[in-house]
Amino acid sequence: MHIIEKVNENKKPLSDRQIKTMIINSIKGKHLQKVLLIPPDFTRFYSMAGKITRMYYDILKESCHIDILPALGTHEKMSETECYDMFGDIPYDKFIVHDWKNDVVKIGEVPREYVTEISDGLISEKIEVEVNKVLLDKSYDLIISIGQVVPHEVVGMANYSKNIFVGCGGSHMINQSHMLGAFYGMEKVMGKDYSPVRKVFDYAHTHFLGDMPLLFVLTVTTQNKKSADIQGLFIGTTREAFSKAVRLSQEKNLTYLDQAPKKMVVYLDEKEFKSTWLGNKAIYRTRMAIADGGELIILAPSVNKFGEDKDNDRLIRKYGYIGRENVLKLVNKNEDLKHNLSVAAHLIHGSSDGRFSITYAVDKLTREEIEGASYQYLDYNETIKKYNPLKLKDGINVMKDGEEIYYISNPALGLWAERKKFF
After folding, report:
1. Which residues contact 343 (CB under 8 A, 6 or more apart)?
2. Phi, psi of 383 (to 5 degrees)
């Protein structure tokens, strides 16, 4: 099909009416009896994919059967409350829970020779391609993958086929792709297309998803107080829709700083971020901006654990965020890390490698837990007496004592970089 696209005009975000018209046009003329919707989970609340999922559901519910498979990846299942907050009153029994360890089927392999080539020789192993068995159900007339294109620490720019291969994928692809991204270097890929991991996804898409009736619905959003605005919507079956969304996201979601801040303060929304696995976006998305020797303070009122998965949480607590070189040594020596490379990659991503300090201001983890993971600790309630997220504005703030900080209210919606480090 041709691409259905709409970008904001006159600085006005897309209206619900415009979005609904595009959705109707995307399924016009199709005789649908059974449809699978694949939105992100609650951790991508600001993708506005919840609104779009609800629109598809309301349009189709009277004429066909609909299932919804949130692209959880390794994340916890969505609670009934989270589903209501994100998707409205769609019945909870319509949601299928993705189990990345038990519900996947191998559909192919990305060959070792190709992985070696695209990684510049950093990794020389094949990567198995696994997807949730639900996607292989031939009774679905259409599978609609919905999500946000935004800078990402592993793949460069999130969504498109990542929603399938990671969000609905299995342990081998998740582990290997995350380690490939970590080996290659986060700062070389964030905010850019055609990273090594994206090339893996492109290869798998071309070779193994050809018969799958996939339609991609891709948003580009910007923050609007406690919500987000859709600045662009791209609907299509080919990579061209993704490429167009990438270009718009690079325009809307990248903030370039002429001078690196010495101190950055980042707030983690209490509903969206409950683990450092998710909350470390505060680190990934600011590391190219903060000055050498600087300080990052993460205001994390609801962070109460490290990993979303219990095994991942245990491994993070065991080894901590101790830097790239130390983690690579541990991978070679310890079987538990060797068999959980996504955790190893996460530990690499969550460290500054000593370039700047990282402090978590928490209410639901102890000093011992935070310092045991190799972060610095602050008490959240004490910290917000000075750095109050209700009073700070995004960007530069000068505190009463004359201290200058750079504040970010939601790290999930962008990438911040010192101009000279990005170009």
Report:
1. 307, 312, 315, 316, 337
2. -65, -40
Six-digit token string for 379: 């008490």
CATH number reported for the structural domain that contains residue 297 in this entry: 3.90.226.30
246 and 263 housed in the same domain: no
Residue 94 · residue 68 · CB < 8 Å: yes
C-alpha–C-alpha distance, residues 373 and 154, integer Å:
21
Q: Are strands 263-267 and 295-300 parallel, antiparallel or unpaired?
A: parallel
How many structural domains does the chain have? 2
Residues of the chain with pLDDT > 90, as a percent, come to: 90
Helices (H), 253-389: 276-279, 281-284, 310-319, 324-333, 335-338, 341-349, 367-372, 380-383
Last residue in a domain, options 189, 223, 252: 252
Q: Count CB-CB contacts under 10 A for residue 81.
A: 11
**301 and 161 co-located in one domain:** no
Same domain, 190 and 288: no
pTM over 0.70: yes
In whole angstroms, what is the distance from residue 307 CA to residue 304 CA? Answer: 10
pLDDT at 249: 96
Residues 6+ apart with CB under 8 A from 117: none
11 shares its domain with 124 = yes
**Rounded distance between C-alpha atoms, residue 325 and residue 299, angstroms:** 28
Q: What is the pLDDT of residues 385-407, one digit of tens each?
A: 999 999 999 999 999 999 999 99
Using DSSP, state whether 36 is helix, strand or coil.
strand
Q: What is the pLDDT of residue 2?
A: 82
Determine the Cα–Cα distance for residues 212 and 208; give it in Å rounded to an integer. Answer: 9
Residue type, 234: F
My answer on whether 166 and 267 are in the same domain is: no
Domain of residue 232, CATH code: 3.40.50.11440
Name 296's Cβ contacts closer than 8 Å, sequence gap at least 6.
263, 264, 265, 266, 282, 283, 286, 290, 352, 356, 357, 358, 359
Distances (CA, A) of 354 to 32, 128, 350, 364, 417: 55, 34, 11, 26, 18
**Mean pLDDT, to the nearest integer, of 329-353?**
94
Domain identity same for 129 and 16: yes
Mapped onto helix, strand or coil, the DSSP state of residue 183 is helix
Domain that includes residue 289, residue range: 255-422
**Structure tokens, 21:** 């018209």
Assess whether 278 and 264 both reside in one domain.
yes
* Token output for 197: 């991991």
Residues 233-256 have pLDDT tens digits of 999 999 999 999 999 999 999 999
